[in-house]
Amino acid sequence: MEEVYRKREEGVLRPRPLSGTIGPMAIQGYFDNAATTALSPRAAAVWAGTASSYPANPSASYPEGRRSKERLEEARSSIATRLGVSPKTLFFTSGATESAGTVLSSLLWAKTPGDIVLGSIEHEAVLGWAPLLKEKGWNVITLDARGGFYDPGELRRKMTPETRMVCLMAVSNALGTVQPTKDLVEAVRSCGTRRPVFFYSDSVQALGKTGLDLPGSGVDGAGFSAHKIHGPRGIGLLYLKKGSIQSLSRGGGQEGGVRPGTENLPAACAFAEAVDELSPDDERRIGEINKAFRETIKGSKTKAVTPEENSTPFILALATPYPSEVAVRILSDKGFLVSSGSACSNNQRGKAEAAFRAAGLGDAAGNVIRVSFSRDTDPEEALQLAKAIAEL
Ligand code: PLP
């Protein structure tokens, strides 16, 4: 650091301004909304307003601190109302990766490890814990997702008296398939286990994209990320039906100790704004875009992999005649940005292909691309992409 300061003073090292345009900006031809969405102007305004008008730490006991705390609780309550749950069950995290990690890492404290069921098409935020859990003596059991769906009957057969946790996502990020969460939870509850089983539902791709019914589903925990619904990056939620959990972090006890560390107040408020902006009308509109898209590619060499029934219209996986990265490059050359799977991991293709294989796609798994829409999607542009895909 000393060296850096010296060089700066000597003018050798000048801080460079961040590159790029500052201001609302849409990427043309963007069809990778399951990876992330553009920050909405309303959420951006709330973020900026809160960042400048609420400077105090919400944990501070003086009036300014209490004001920040009140604002944080307003954001929590607003989201809780939309989700139909109590604000006491919602804990702000940095995103769905941390939400899942908080739940799964809590198992590491268990004196006697047991069995855990992980779905085969889960995101790496969940599956990435399998090696460590195994190392710590947990018996990791995989639940297949034939055709992209978890089957409650199959789950019942995988349950053992020692099962302590089940992690099955609400909507697949790779395929868009909506899982029968309520039935899966019921399947778990109908099994005789030695201890209560914690059901975790990674619900990132469900928020705003399906009729998510958190209290009705009966899950014990769920994770969300704001940036998938036009909120800011780096803020998410962990829903815990029964209040608390053993956190991996230690600190100031914020978020009931579930997520210690100074709260990201501007991002939490912008997240609440993004949730408030969600409208069932978006799902209907995207449904029409999805339908027209499927019609346009009919008869071409590219086939829809995402089933029409029981899937969110926001995500459409397609088996192309080319290896996925080739198809992605061809489309990118034509000005369309799609994904070769789940762009939220570094090794995108491998992870997404694994999910497609796990869903029973066999060798076609390597040829699958993912097109994902948002309320910003222009129907005309979507049609142009469909035509370009039909020509592959
Ligand atoms: N779970 C699912 C289903 C996802 O789609 C993603 C991101 O794409 C995540 C978890 C991780 O979210 P984040 O990177 O915001 O933590």
Number of helices: 14
Q: How are the strands of the largest sheet arranged?
A: 1-7-6-5-4-2-3
Strand content: 5-15%
Low-confidence stretches: none
Q: Helicity, in percent?
A: 25-40%
Helix/strand/pairing class, anyone?
alpha/beta
The chain-level mean pLDDT equals 92
Assembly annotation: single chain
Sheet with the most strands, sense and barrel status? 7 strands, mixed
Give an overview of the whole structure:
The chain is globular, with a radius of gyration of 22 Å. Strands 1-7-6-5-4-2-3 form a 7-stranded mixed sheet, with helices on both faces. A 3-stranded antiparallel sheet has the order 8-9-10. Helix 2 (41-53) packs antiparallel against helix 10 (265-277), helix 3 (63-83) runs parallel beside helix 10 and helix 7 packs parallel to helix 8. The mean pLDDT is 92. The chain has 14 helices and 10 strands. The termini are far apart. It has 392 residues and is α/β, with parallel strands linked by helices. Bound molecules: pyridoxal-5'-phosphate.
